Amino acid sequence: MNFTLTEEQELMVSAAKRMVETRIEPVLLGHPADQPLPKAAMLDIFSAFAELGITAPRLPVEAGGGGLKMLDYGLILEQLPPVVALSLASHEGTILRIHLGCPDHIRERYLPDLIAGRKIACTANTEADAGSDSGAIRTKLEIDGDSAYLTGRKMWITNASICDVVNVSCTSGLTDNGRPVTRRALVDRGEVAFEIRETAITGLRQGHLSELVFERTRVPASHIMGDAGDAAKTLTMAWNGNRPLLGLMTVHLAQKAFDLARDYALSRQQFGKPLASHQLVQKDLADIETAIVSSRLMCYYALDCIDRGLRANGTSAMAKRFATQACERAIHLAMQVHGAMGISEELGIEQLWRDARVFQVPDGMNGILELIQGREITGTAAFR
Ligand SMILES: Cc1cc2nc3c(=O)[nH]c(=O)nc-3n(C[C@H](O)[C@H](O)[C@H](O)COP(=O)(O)OP(=O)(O)OC[C@H]3O[C@@H](n4cnc5c(N)ncnc54)[C@H](O)[C@@H]3O)c2cc1C
After folding, report:
1. Hey, whose CA ends up nearest to atom 30 of ligand 1?
2. How far is the CA of 241 from the centre of ligand 1 (A)?
3. Which CATH architecture has domain 7-115?
4. What's the pLDDT tens digit per position in 109-136?
5. Interval between CA 132 and ligand 1 midpoint (Å)
6. Residue 17 CB neighbours (<10 A)
7. Taking the chain, what is the end-to-end CA distance rounded to the nearest angstrom?
8. Which atom of ligand 1 is nearest to the CA of 130?
9. Residue 239: pLDDT band by 50, 70, 90 thresholds?
10. Whose CA is closest to 221, among 118, 149, 135?
11. What is the chain's percent helix, strand, coil content, to nearest 5?
């Protein structure tokens, strides 16, 4: 076992840091912190992702992808501002789903622009009555000759308002035991009009989260992807990889909060000495560092399990649940070290906390992640 990055990994991490400094932070700082970024700004950021080779990290090189190991991708993603890292995860997760089992004409038409960062993609599964129970979707797909029609409403969809294509989970009838037969359809926003409404949330406010409404929206029947019933499989495959990646996004936020708290504790004096020399402040700093290091290692471990071809459903659920909780608590402690400054908007630390809170929701809430891990431990699913 070796806990040191290889020379190649060090190079990847420093290239990612350089790209953030020169190409991404200037865009984020050039726009209001509490408004979704314009699409043109997102395309600038996606072209930087493409240059770094991370728009399709999970696709093999022969298919135009980065062919990266998940651990290496995680090391890179950890360096990115989480608001754009989540957008990238939605985009590249959708690329993976398009790649898996889709007709060649769809791959050939869409993947080159998506991989080059000239177009943006997203996946719409969640509905009002299908959140944690992701298979309970009701968006209806009707096929009539060369046309297919979508009717339904999707919620909380990352990237939807800035995307060019949406991978929509839908259903065409029920199985014998009453569960929907899931299908996937690729909706091209350049060809199909439908309603999109941006939803404001606690954090990640430069990002994009929307509701989509399909009212017997016509798509070409040739845009139906994969086999009947494979939507859930392709979602789960990407989720297993995504969960530790989302954990690392909260590690990024907690690391920033820790750096701010340590500097503040060393510079501010109370009771005639720096905060940093009070024992309880040192305990807070020690607890924050412990949360960061343990979260980071657990996420790296889950990604490494995936790279080694092990079943990682439980490990990846555990990593996301632990990291998102531990890092939110770590940021809370860092705010405490700052006293009133911790809750002021001046230092930006309260924004780190709001951003971290958001990550407890996508790709599996903690209750569900506990049940996934429980299922892996016991062999019994408690969901239904
Ligand atoms: C920032 C963000 C990005 C997102 N991006 C996307 C996206 O790109 N595409 C997409 O399709 N969706 C996306 N989502 C939606 C997300 O996947 C869902 O919000 C999530 O799955 C939870 O569903 P819900 O909000 O309906 O909560 P619910 O499922 O209603 O859960 C509410 C509470 O009940 C608990 N609960 C539910 N069932 C059980 C159970 N069986 N046992 C124990 N506890 C249970 C949950 O843990 C939770 O605490 C995103 C959400 C957010 C916040």
Report:
1. 131
2. 17
3. Orthogonal Bundle (1.10)
4. 999 999 999 999 999 999 999 999 988 8
5. 5
6. 13
7. 39
8. 26
9. confident
10. 149
11. 55, 15, 30
